[in-house]
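Standup notes
- DV: blocked on the single-chain target, sequence here:
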Amino acid sequence: MKQWGKASILLLAFAIMVVLSACGNKANENNNTAGGNKTSNQEGETNQAGSPEPSDATKNLDALKGKKIALIMQFNTGTFSSQYIQGVKDQVTKFGGEVQVFAADNDLAKMASNLDAAINQGFDGILIDHGQAGALEAGVKRAVEQKIQVIAFDADLKVPEVTVLQQDDAKLTEMTLNKLSEDAGGKGSIVKVWVAGFAPMERRNVAYKAFLDSNPDFKEIAAFGNANNPAMDAQSQMEAVLKKYPNKGDITAVWASWDEFAKGATRAIQQAGRTEIKVYGIDMSDEDLQLIQDSNSPWVASAAVDPISIGSVQVRYLYQKFNGDQTDETVVLEPTLVKREDLPALPEKVNTTQLSEHVEGWGSSEQGYTDLLKELEASTAK
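- DV (later): unblocked, structure below
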């Protein structure tokens, strides 16, 4: 019995060792397999099929591509508007999206209808150019309720979740009027070309009135303006004013609150041979620059924000919204004063793309251009 007991104990111990060895090998196999998968997922994020899993950053970029954008415009008049549209389209294309332009020909009812159409057609985002709250607010609120992102430019909208871009209209006005005062020696007679009913125009008019209040040696002798066919209307009305004030010295300068108005007034003054009258405008385009460069032109200065940059910046804030970023209610775009004395004389022509070579502060803006959007643009370009 004693011998048998010792043998039994030895056999039992051997059996336990065999079992433990087998379990150990199995555990090592499992650990190796689990460790291999873990390493693969950490370094290459490989799924069961062996292909890499996209990172969160890549998923974010992919989600921003292929967006369909509606651009709802109150009017599409002149080269400023065409360059603004160019800025919008170029930036959306660089982000891998598409743009459709809806122009309302200065008809607010049509603009509201175009906004409704964009909502019903399921655009991912809506850009608004000008317009009035009375015509647009209901549609904008409906777009926001349907999770369509909206960014406006120069519109008097105050809707939660909607960012509004605007030029610093007070500064635009002050820049041009201060230059006018400097050139005129602090006194004179002014013709104002302006139109009511537009948020930026209203802000410019407030600053204009403040200038007259602070400079009593300047007098306004005439005022006019029409947003329909603005350049042609300004030209014909300026012709009438010139007939009313036919003598040299009767009119010191024209202050034009929009470059379309400045173009019309400039043509009327040139044709009448009254180039002693100087023109000071707001906004800038390639066509405007050539008129300012011309030494025979009465248009001598204009304050503006690059229209291409305005379009680009507006798009960037829309894409920030797409990404879920919080954006300010109002974004102010800083202007630059462009003067004839800063530009080369004709026949060398300068366009707005080259203007930064001659005028400090002009050029492509980095506003709204986040690191993620730079990555999106780079990935789309590949």
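- Follow-up: The chain has twelve helices and twelve strands.
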